[in-house]
Amino acid sequence: MARHVQLNNVDHANLRIRTERGEAFGDAVMSCPVFPRELRNVQAHYPIIFTKDPNLACFRPLALFGFEEGENLFLKGDVWDAPYVPLAMRMRPFLIGFSSVEGEGEGRRAEAHIDLDHPRVSETDGVRIFMEHGGHSPYLKEMLGILAEAHDGEQSIAGFSAMLEEFSLIEPFTLDITLNDGTTGRLSGYYTIAEEALYGLDASALGRLQAAGNLQPIYMAVASLSQFRSLIDRRNARLET
């Protein structure tokens, strides 16, 4: 069970983070959320599909690592077999939390939180979060940068999704798979970019998408679909081991 608390250099002075990869550290997942600004990096290695976020009522992009729950075909023991690991996987066990801001312009302030029950958290093994006298370690500075990127990316999801819906650029998606041993399967319940609608957009629509910074991520999501072949190849390779 997750135990999220605000990170501080008093209560968490001695905490360390295990940075190796592996099933024991929560890496055996079928997919993870990704953000529009990182889709250029994501599409070079993973298929990008979309899910409907029930909390935000919007479409959220995902990087696909496998074809069933708990399957990560990029995980080989303690190695992640791809040059780019999505932000949502790299930031664990840290996450973005919020606190209320009182006074003029009341609102919420983003903060660095940590899941104390995450298997990466340790008091004996791994890299230090804080230096001996309480300063941020180089590792924590890197993680705070990743959290800032993820926070900015999260702010863009609603607008990105709204434009996909406005221009009818999202459609349901089903993929039927046949493996080398004859096993069949189906990936369904997700969405992809509606390519026919995309290629039919007029100059005005394309200009609006470009001005909003959403045109490149859309094309990156389309380009990523070629990675399904390599993902199936990875699944077939596991059948042979």
Keywords:
241 residues; alpha+beta; three-stranded antiparallel β-sheet; 7 helices; single chain; SapC; SapC protein
Question: Can you walk through the features of this model?
Answer:
It is a single chain. With 241 residues, this protein is an alpha+beta fold. It is built from 7 helices and 13 strands. A hairpin with a 5-residue loop joins strand 12 and strand 13. The chain has helices at 39-42, 87-90, 138-166, 195-199, 203-211, 215-224, 227-239; strands spanning 4-6, 16-17, 31-33, 48-53, 58-64, 75-76, 79-80, 94-101, 107-115, 121-122, 127-128, 170-178, 184-193. It has one domain. The strands form 5 sheets. It has a 3-stranded antiparallel sheet. A 3-stranded antiparallel sheet has the order 10-2-11, with no helix packed on it. Strands 3-5-4 form a 3-stranded antiparallel sheet, covered by helices on one side. The protein is globular and about 60 Å long. 31% of the residues lie in helices and 27% in strands. This is SapC protein. Pfam families: SapC (PF07277).
